[in-house]
Specification:
This protein has about 775 residues and is of the alpha+beta class. The protein has six domains: about 1-40 and about 150-185, Phenylalanyl-tRNA Synthetase, Chain B, domain 1 (2-Layer Sandwich); about 45-125, OB fold (Dihydrolipoamide Acetyltransferase, E2P), CATH 2.40.50.140; about 200-390, 3-Layer(bba) Sandwich (Phenylalanyl-tRNA Synthetase, Chain B, domain 3), CATH 3.50.40; about 400-465, Phenylalanyl-tRNA Synthetase, Chain B, domain 1; about 480-675, Bira Bifunctional Protein, Domain 2 (BirA Bifunctional Protein, domain 2, 2-Layer Sandwich); about 690-780, 2-Layer Sandwich (Alpha-Beta Plaits). Helices cover about 25% and strands about 30% of the residues. It has 19 helices and 39 strands. Helix 3 (about 170-180) packs antiparallel against helix 10, helix 4 crosses helix 5 (about 240-255) and helix 9 crosses helix 11 (about 450-460). About 35% of the residues are buried. The mean pLDDT is about 90. Its EC number is 6.1.1.20. Keywords: Aminoacyl-tRNA synthetase, ATP-binding, Cytoplasm, Ligase, Magnesium, Metal-binding, Nucleotide-binding, Protein biosynthesis, RNA-binding, tRNA-binding. GO terms for molecular function: ATP binding; magnesium ion binding; phenylalanine-tRNA ligase activity; tRNA binding. One of its GO terms (cellular component) is phenylalanine-tRNA ligase complex. InterPro entries: aa-tRNA-synth_II/BPL/LPL, B3/B4_tRNA-bd, DNA-bd_dom_put_sf, Fdx_antiC-bd, Fdx_antiC-bd_sf, NA-bd_OB-fold, Phe-tRNA-ligase_IIc_bsu, Phe-tRNA-ligase_IIc_bsu_bact.
Length: about 775
C-alpha cells in the first residue's frame, strides 16, 4: 500500500516528519518497506514543443525544438503523436528513468544532437502499454514545473487481516490513535439532491452480497483536474478520465472499490448472479477470460458487465465521450472473491481489497462521496440510490476486562488510556466493571478479548513492554505420555513423521473403514476427503515414496489422532503407529544383518509396555482380525479384555496394491487405552539361588498364533516360571508341510531355594500339557 504524505495530510493533522511517521507505522504493526523521495524525479518537467522537423537521416524520427521554460532544447523523438504546441513530459539531461534506471545524457541520434528525452507513460511507470506515444498534457500544466509532485511516498506492507489499512484514511486513523496527530472528519453528504429515478435497477441472486448504485446523466467525462492527477501519479497510478480517476481516488482514500459503467451500454437491469455455464468475457484490460460455471458476475439480459468485485467489462467501460454513467458501490463476500480471483488468475486493486474485507457500512458513503465529486468536476444530474441484497452485519460485542491488558500485556497503562486507544480506533466502549466493547464495522478481524488487548498494546507501544528475566530450566524433560513415547521410539531407531489427518475415502474403505460421518464437507482436494481411521496408510505412502527413491531400510512412526467407529464423542483417539521394512542393520563388517520380521515390531510394541511398567501377567496375545494385517503373521495384544493394539505383517493384498517387493511390518498402540492402565513400579529382586533354563520346540499348525503358545504357559500358575521367550520359528518341515516348529526358552527361578531336577521336570510336563490343550501342539524336543 503506497501513500504520499500530502495525501495522508488530507486526513491527518500532524507536524510529524516522514521519518517519525514511518517509525510509528512500523511500531504499530504497519511495516514500512520503503520511503520513496520523489524529489529525485524533479528533473522531469513539463515542456512545450515549439517546432517539429523531419530527421534528415531517418524517416521515422523527428527533430523537435522544445521549451522547458528556461531554454529551447533540440530533442530527437520517434513518437507518432508528436506535434507543435503539444505539452508533454521532458526528461532533462541527468534524469534517471524510474523503471529502467537509464540515465539520460546528451547524445547524437543518426548524427543529430539530442539533449533530453520526451517521455511516454510506460517509460515513467504510469502504464504497461507499449508504443502508445509520448504523454500529452492538458493546458492546466505550467511549462517548466515538475511533472511529478515533489512528495514523499511511503510503501507499507499491510498484513492480510488489516483490509481497513488498504486506505489512506484507515492508516491515518491508526496513526491518530497513537497520538501523533489528529484525525480529520470525513464530510459525507447523504442527502444529495436528485431530480430523477434511476433508469437502471439492481438485483442480486447472491445471498452474500449487497449492491447499490446511482445513475448520473449528462456528465462531461473530461480530463481530471491537476490536483487529482497528481494524487494518483504520486503512487504510480495513471490518469484515465475524471470519472474513472474519482473511483480510484475513493478506493485509495477510503478502501472502497467502485465501478462506473457507461449507462447507455446497459439494458435496463444489472443482476449479481452466478454464471450457469462457461462464458467468455473481455475485461477492461482487453484480455479474454473464460468464466467457470458458478462465477459471480454482474450482467444484464444481454451482456456480462463485470466479474463481481474484480474487474469490469470492456463493453461498458467509461470513455472520454461517455455521457451517462451508472456508479456502482457494493460489498462482496471475501472468500467468494478470493476463489474467483484465483480461478481466473487475476488479482486487481479491487479484488485485493474485497478479499481482505471491505467496510460494509461504507457502501453508501463511498457512493455519495464519489457522486459529489463527479457532479462537481463533470457536472450532470444524479438519480436516487437503488440497492439490492441484504446488508450483512459484521459487528461484534465483546465482554472485556480492561485489567487483563496490564496482566497479559505486561505494561503499566491506566483505564483512561485504554479507553482512549480503543475509542480512537473506532471501538464503542460501554464502561462498567467489565466493559462491553462494540467493534467497528471495518474490523472483522476483532472477535475475542485477546484481540482487544493486542490492539491496545500495539498502539500503546511494544517498546513499553517491561523486560523480565527469562528463567530456563537446566534440564527439559518430556512431560506428556506422547512426548515420552517419542523419545522412546527415537531411541529404538525409528524416525518420527507427520502426515495429514485425512485421506482418500477409497483408501479408508480398502482398509476396512468407511463411515459417512467422517467425510469432510469442503476437502482440500478429492484425495483428502475423509478423516483418517488409521495412520497405517499414511505410513505406507511414505514407505512407497522412499522405496521408489532407493531407500529400502525403513523405520518410521507417528503419534496422532484417528477417527473411526470406536471414537467417543468429544474425545480424541490417539494412536502410536509404526512401520518397519528392509533390514535391521546396514551392511557392515562386524555383524550380519537380517530382514525385518514380525518380532521386530512386537519388540517395539512391548518396549512401550515395559517402559510404562505394565504388568506382564495381565498381558495376553491372540490372533489379529484387522483386515489389513496378515492373518497368520499378526497379533492383537490385550490387557485383560482391553485391546491395547496390533502388530504384524501387512496383508498380502494390501502389499500387492502398493506394489511392494519387500515385506512391511506395522504396529499400532491405542494410547487412550494404554494411558488408563494401572502402572506397577518394578522392584529389584535379589535372587539368592541359581536359575535354570529349558528350551522347548513345539510342532503346531501353521495358522496357530505365537501368543496361543505363550499365553497358556504364562497362565499355568507356575510361580517358578519367570520368563518365556521365542527364539526360533521354522515352517519348512518336509514331513509336515502344514506345520511349523516354534522354539521357546523358559527360565525357572525360585526365590527361596535351589530348584532340583524333579521340580523342573514336573514344571516342564505342565507346560507341555498346557500347550497341547490350547493348540494341539506336540513337543518335538526339550
Amino acid at each position: 500500500m503506497k501513500l504520499s504524505l500530502s495525501w495522508l495530510f488530507e486526513f491527518l493533522e500532524t507536524d510529524a516528519t516522514a521519518t517519525e511517521i514511518s517509525d510509528k507505522l512500523t511500531n504499530i504493526g504497519l511495516e514500512v518497506e520503503e520511503i520513496i523521495d520523489n524529489t529525485r524525479l524533479s528533473s522531469f518537467v513539463v515542456a512545450q514543443i515549439n517546432e517539429v522537423l523531419d530527421h534528415p537521416n531517418a524517416d521515422r524520427l523527428k527533430v523537435c525544438k522544445v521549451s522547458n521554460g528556461k531554454e529551447i532544447l533540440q530533442i530527437v523523438c520517434g513518437a507518432d503523436n508528436v506535434k507543435v504546441g503539444m505539452k508533454t513530459v521532458l526528461a532533462q539531461v541527468g534524469s534517471i528513468l524510474p523503471i529502467s534506471n537509464i540515465t539520460i545524457a546528451s547524445t547524437k541520434i543518426r548524427d543529430v544532437a539530442s539533449n533530453g528525452m520526451l517521455c511516454s507513460e510506460d517509460e515513467l511507470g504510469l502504464s504497461s502499454k507499449k508504443n502508445a506515444g509520448i504523454i500529452e498534457l492538458s493546458d492546466d500544466y505550467q511549462i517548466g514545473e515538475s511533472f511529478f509532485p515533489c512528495n514523499i511516498v511511503i510503501d507499507i506492507n499491510v498484513t492480510p487481516n488489516r483490509g481497513d489499512c488498504l486506505s489512506v484514511y484507515g492508516i491515518a486513523r491508526d496513526l491518530a490513535a497513537t497520538g501523533i496527530g489528529k484525525l480529520k472528519a470525513i464530510g459525507v453528504n447523504n442527502k444529495i439532491l436528485h431530480s430523477m429515478s434511476s433508469p437502471i435497477t439492481l438485483q442480486t441472486t447472491d445471498k452474500e452480497s449487497f449492491i447499490s448504485g446511482r445513475y448520473i446523466g449528462n456528465v462531461k467525462n473530461i480530463e481530471s483536474p491537476k490536483w487529482l492527477k497528481d494524487r494518483l501519479k504520486s503512487i504510480g497510478l495513471r490518469s484515465i478520465s475524471a470519472v474513472v480517476d474519482i473511483t480510484n481516488y475513493i478506493m485509495i482514500s477510503f478502501g472502497k472499490p467502485l465501478h462506473a459503467y457507461d449507462a447507455d451500454k446497459i439494458n435496463g437491469k444489472l443482476v449479481v448472479q452466478k454464471a450457469n455455464e462457461q462464458r467468455a468475457f473481455v475485461g477492461l484490460d482487453g484480455k479474454n477470460y473464460l468464466l467457470a460455471d458458478g462465477t459471480n458476475i454482474i450482467a444484464d439480459d444481454k451482456n456480462i458487465h463485470g466479474i463481481a468485485g474484480i474487474i469490469g467489462a470492456q463493453c461498458s467501460q467509461c470513455l472520454l465521450d461517455t455521457k451517462n454513467i451508472f456508479l456502482e458501490s457494493a460489498w462482496f463476500d471475501p472468500i467468494s472473491i478470493a476463489t474467483t480471483s484465483r480461478s481466473i488468475g487475476l488479482s486487481t486493486e479491487a479484488s485485493y481489497r474485497f478479499e481482505r474485507f471491505v467496510d460494509p457500512e461504507f457502501v453508501i458513503n463511498g457512493l455519495n462521496i464519489a457522486t459529489e465529486m463527479i457532479l462537481s468536476i463533470c457536472g450532470g444530474i444524479a438519480s436516487d440510490v437503488v440497492s439490492a441484497g441484504e446488508y450483512v452485519e459484521h459487528k461484534n460485542t465483546i465482554n472485556f476486562d480492561y485489567r487483563e491488558v496490564s496482566k497479559l500485556g505486561s505494561i503499566d497503562i491506566s483505564q483512561e488510556e485504554i479507553f482512549d486507544i480503543l475509542t480512537g480506533l473506532g471501538f464503542i466502549v460501554n464502561k462498567n466493571d467489565h466493559w462491553s466493547v462494540n467493534t467497528p464495522s471495518w474490523r472483522s478481524d476483532i472477535k475475542l478479548p485477546i484481540d482487544l488487548i493486542e490492539e491496545v498494546v500495539r498502539i500503546y507501544g511494544y517498546e513499553k513492554i517491561k523486560e523480565e528475566e527469562l528463567h530456563i530450566r537446566d534440564v527439559q524433560t518430556p512431560g506428556t505420555l506422547q512426548d515420552k513415547l517419542r523419545v522412546l521410539m527415537s531411541s529404538r531407531g525409528l524416525n518420527e513423521v507427520l502426515t495429514w489427518s485425512f485421506m482418500d475415502e477409497k483408501i479408508a474403505e480398502k482398509f476396512g473403514y468407511f463411515n459417512k460421518q467422517f467425510l469432510i464437507a469442503n476437502p482440500l482436494n478429492n484425495n483428502l476427503n475423509i478423516m483418517r481411521p488409521t495412520i497405517i496408510p499414511n505410513l505406507l505412502q511414505i514407505a512407497e515414496s522412499n522405496i521408489a527413491r532407493g531407500i529400502f531400510d525403513l523405520a518410521i512412526f507417528e503419534i496422532g489422532p484417528v477417527y473411526n467407529d470406536d471414537l467417543v464423542l468429544d474425545q480424541q483417539k490417539f494412536v502410536l503407529s509404526g512401520l518397519r521394512s528392509g533390514h535391521n542393520l546396514p551392511r557392515n563388517l562386524y555383524k550380519t544383518n537380517r530382514k525385518i520380521d514380525t518380532f521386530d515390531v512386537k519388540v517395539d510394541f512391548m518396549s512401550v509396555l515395559h517402559f510404562l511398567n505394565i504388568d506382564d501377567s495381565s498381558i495376553s496375545i491372540s490372533e489379529c482380525n484387522m483386515p489389513y494385517y496378515h492373518p497368520g503373521k499378526s497379533s492383537t495384544i490385550y490387557f485383560n479384555n482391553i485391546i491395547l493394539g496390533y502388530f504384524g505383517e501387512l496383508h498380502p493384498s494390501i502389499k500387492n496394491s502398493y506394489e511392494f517387493k519387500q515385506d512391511i511390518m506395522c504396529f499400532e498402540i491405542m494410547l487412550n487405552s494404554v494411558d488408563k492402565l494401572p502402572i506397577h513400579s518394578k522392584k529389584y529382586i535379589d535372587y539368592q539361588y541359581q536359575s535354570a533354563k529349558r528350551d522347548f520346540a513345539f510342532l503346531v499348525d501353521k495358522n496357530v498364533a505365537i501368543g496361543s503358545i505363550i499365553n497358556p504357559i504364562k497362565n499355568s500358575n507356575l510361580n517358578i516360571v519367570t520368563e518365556v521367550l521365542v527364539f526360533d520359528v521354522y515352517d519348512k518341515i518336509d514331513d509336515y508341510p502344514n506345520k511349523k516348529s516354534v522354539a521357546l526358552s523358559v527360565t525357572f527361578h525360585s526365590p527361596d531355594h535351589t530348584l532340583i531336577e524333579d521340580e523342573i521336570k514336573k514344571a516342564s510336563e505342565i507346560i507341555t500339557d498346557a500347550v497341547y490343550k490350547s493348540t494341539g501342539g506336540e513337543l518335538r524336543s526339550v
